Sequence to fold (482 residues):
Amino acid sequence: MASEKPLYLTTTLPYVNDDPHVGFALEIVQADSIARLNRLLGREVFFNFGVDEHGQKILKKAESGGREVGEYVDFYAKRFEKLKDTLNLSYDNFIRTTEASHIEAAQEMWKRADQRGDIYKKKYQGLYCVGCEMYVKENDLVDGKCPNHPNSTPEVISEDNYFFRFSKYEKELIEYLEKDSILPVWRKEEALKFVKSGLEDFSISREKSRMSWGIPVPNDDSQVMYVWFDALTNYISTLGWPGDIEGKFQKFWQDGETIQFAGKDQVRFQSLIWQAMLISAEVRNTDKIFYHGFITSGGQKMSKSVGNVISPIDLVERYPSARSDGTDALRYYLLRHIHPTEDSDITDEKFVDAYNGNLSNGLGNLVSRIMKMAEDNLSSAPEISDNTISDEFKSALQDFNFNVAMDIIWKEIGELDSKIQETEPFKLIKEDKESAIEIIKELIIRLYSVGNMLEPLMPETSAKIKEAISANQKPENLFPRI
Fold:
């Protein structure tokens, strides 16, 4: 990933049909840590985030609650915007697919595909899953239900739709996938298997009489765009495509390095459908797409019916009451205790155990001990180089091994604890002040390195550590025990 090119990062756009949950918080925090690392290393970064606001599922949710759909999406968009503060995110733009500039871009994407001969109209009948916002095959169903939405039965839909010539791009997609554009590698194999089994053209519109909440199809007011065809275009509309008045699209997408973050259930949409759309529109493909696993709770998939859905907003505000401590505590848990690419579990009990054991007793206690010795025995902080991030740490984070990067930091924390126990500078100061002072200075310099490495992962904690060192004062307890 090392490059002097500008870097473009984006997450998927969550649907605004409910409050944010901790599963999506994982994706946005992963992306944020990569954005922060690259900025720290002096690279120009554009980080995109936003919400997907069209589609039948959203329309039905608004109607079932007796709310006007525009007011409904405004409400939930604000809930997702709240994540910027809740998770301390550093994104550069928050895009909404109801914005006029995005609508214009989605229609331009349609027009370009149409001009390439990649769009045609036909009568279609099939099973439609409202939850997935897509047609499903009968042999994909489990007991007559969509495997992703087992509480709803797919509807039989028959209507005139526009179709995208997905099958036309099998060769180009195989070439794209073989360039190591997907991480982890088994997601690449999954995508290649899907393409090699044969691609089928898919519907990219819905009859407006049946589903009115969508972007109008150019030159056909009786149809609106399929929500995925609309929403995927956000990745370049956020940069000002197609007009590109500010030159961001050219700089970050065409000339830069592009990385997308997505959940493991998104492979078909992000690495196949979106890439085929880009080829059709004659826009450069995404360089790399990183797929994370799911977060379970108590060993079960999060579900309202089960009652195990965890809100990142609630979690931050609950543990503890001080927001800053809760923010970095959640970022810590997501980046260290949730595997980057495999399914992992979170419960209140596991969160509290990790917080008390590794943040309160571990990092927080270490900072207090070192800075108390510094405050009592040094007149000022020692001279410290700001270039104290190891290559091992940078490589781990650049390779999306977030938990490994965290382990490198906590290994150093453990070694600093051992150094204090072995040398006992707080006792040595009475017998050999000069030697004790040198040990304390070494501890401070190494603690500053911990603070530097924490900057992309736990930015508020990083700032507090470095501010304390600069002021040569013991800070307030960073992580009060829960």
